[in-house]
C-alpha cells in the first residue's frame, strides 16, 4: 500500500480564500475610515509613524541622549528604538475595544470576531514596518546613518516584536469585550513598559541585577537582537530567543482563547 500525503480539502481551501477576502475588505474599510479617500490617503499608514519617528530622532539628537556616550549614532539609535515602540504600542492600542464599534459587521455570515483583530493587527504592523524600512534605507542611502550590519538579525528581532504585539493585541483586545476596565488599565501598563522595553537603552548598559529583571520581559530581548542586527559588534546584545518564543506562544494561545470566548459572548447577546 502506498502512502499519500495529506492534501487539504477543497472546502478548507475555499473557506481560507473567503476569510482572506473578508480580512482584505476589513483592511480597506479600516484604511478608508481612518485616512479617507483624498490627499495621500493610504500613504498615511506609514507616513504617520514616520513623522513621529523623525520627531523623536530630532529630539534625541538635540538632547544628545546616552547613545552618543557609547560611540554609536544617536539618530540610528533613536530610529531602531522608537520604531519598535510604534510597532507594539499602536498594534495593541488599536485592538482595544475593537469589537463594539464593529458589531454590525458581524451580521455578515463570513465575518468573524477574530477577523476584526487580524485586520487591525496587519494594518498597524504594516504601517510600522514600512515606516522603519523607508527610514532605515532612506537615511542610509543619504549617508546620514550607516547601512544595517546584518539584515537577517534585524528581521528576526522585528518578527519577534511583531509576534509579541499580535499576541498581546488579541489578549488585551479580547479582554476589553468583557470589561472596559481592561482598556483603562492597559494605557498605564503600556507607559510602564516603555522604560523596560529596550527602546531607550541597550540591555548591556543596565546594572546586572536590573538587567536580569528586565530580560524577564519579551520586548528587551527582541529589541536588543534588532539593534544588534543594525549596529553589529559595536554593541553587546543580551537576549534569549527560545525564552521569548515560549512566552510569545503562551501569550498568543491565551489571546486566541480569550477572543474565542469574546466571540461566544457577542453571539449570545
From TrEMBL:
- Where does the protein end up? Cell membrane
The protein's topology relative to the membrane is: Multi-pass membrane protein
Superkingdom as given in the UniProt entry = Bacteria
| TM region positions | 40-63, 69-88, 117-145, 151-173, 241-263
Quick one: where is this thing mainly located?
membrane
Q: Name one GO molecular function term.
A: ABC-type transporter activity
One matching Pfam family is ABC2_membrane
Domain ABC-2 type transporter transmembrane span(s) in chain numbering: 23-231
The reply to whether Membrane figures as a keyword in the UniProt entry is yes
Q: Which UniProt keywords apply?
A: Cell membrane, Membrane, Polysaccharide transport, Sugar transport, Transmembrane, Transmembrane helix, Transport
The UniProt entry's GO CC annotations, sorted and at most eight, read:
ATP-binding cassette (ABC) transporter complex
Give the GO biological process terms.
Answer: lipopolysaccharide transport; polysaccharide transport
PANTHER family from the xrefs? CAPSULE POLYSACCHARIDE EXPORT INNER-MEMBRANE PROTEIN CTRC, INNER MEMBRANE TRANSPORT PERMEASE
Which protein family is named in the record? Belongs to the ABC-2 integral membrane protein family.
Protein name in UniProt: Capsular polysaccharide export ABC transporter transmembrane protein
> Which organism does this sequence originate in?
Burkholderia cenocepacia
Amino acid at each position: 500500500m502506498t502512502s499519500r500525503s495529506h492534501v487539504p480539502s477543497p472546502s478548507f481551501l475555499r473557506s481560507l480564500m473567503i476569510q482572506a477576502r473578508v480580512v482584505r475588505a476589513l483592511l480597506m474599510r479600516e484604511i478608508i475610515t481612518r485616512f479617507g479617500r483624498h490627499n495621500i490617503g493610504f500613504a498615511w499608514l506609514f507616513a504617520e509613524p514616520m513623522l513621529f519617528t523623525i520627531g523623536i530622532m530630532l529630539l534625541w539628537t538635540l538632547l544628545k541622549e546616552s547613545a552618543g556616550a557609547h560611540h554609536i549614532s544617536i539618530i540610528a539609535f533613536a530610529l531602531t528604538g522608537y520604531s519598535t515602540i510604534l510597532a507594539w504600542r499602536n498594534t495593541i492600542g488599536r485592538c482595544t475595544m475593537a469589537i463594539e464599534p464593529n458589531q454590525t459587521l458581524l451580521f455578515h455570515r463570513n465575518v468573524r470576531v477574530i477577523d476584526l483583530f487580524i485586520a487591525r493587527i496587519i494594518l498597524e504592523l504594516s504601517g510600522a514596518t514600512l515606516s522603519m524600512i523607508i527610514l532605515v534605507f532612506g537615511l542610509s542611502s543619504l549617508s546620514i546613518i550607516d547601512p544595517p550590519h546584518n539584515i537577517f538579525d534585524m528581521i528576526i528581532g522585528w518578527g519577534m516584536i511583531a509576534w509579541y504585539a499580535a499576541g498581546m493585541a488579541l489578549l488585551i483586545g479580547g479582554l476589553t469585550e468583557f470589561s472596559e476596565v481592561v482598556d483603562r488599565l492597559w494605557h498605564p501598563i503600556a507607559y510602564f513598559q516603555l522604560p523596560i522595553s529596550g527602546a531607550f537603552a541597550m540591555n548591556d548598559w543596565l546594572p546586572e541585577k536590573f538587567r536580569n529583571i528586565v530580560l524577564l520581559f519579551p520586548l528587551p530581548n527582541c529589541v536588543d537582537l534588532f539593534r544588534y542586527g543594525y549596529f553589529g559588534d559595536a554593541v553587546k546584545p543580551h537576549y534569549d530567543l527560545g525564552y521569548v518564543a515560549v512566552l510569545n506562544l503562551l501569550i498568543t494561545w491565551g489571546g486566541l482563547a480569550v477572543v474565542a470566548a469574546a466571540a461566544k459572548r457577542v453571539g449570545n447577546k
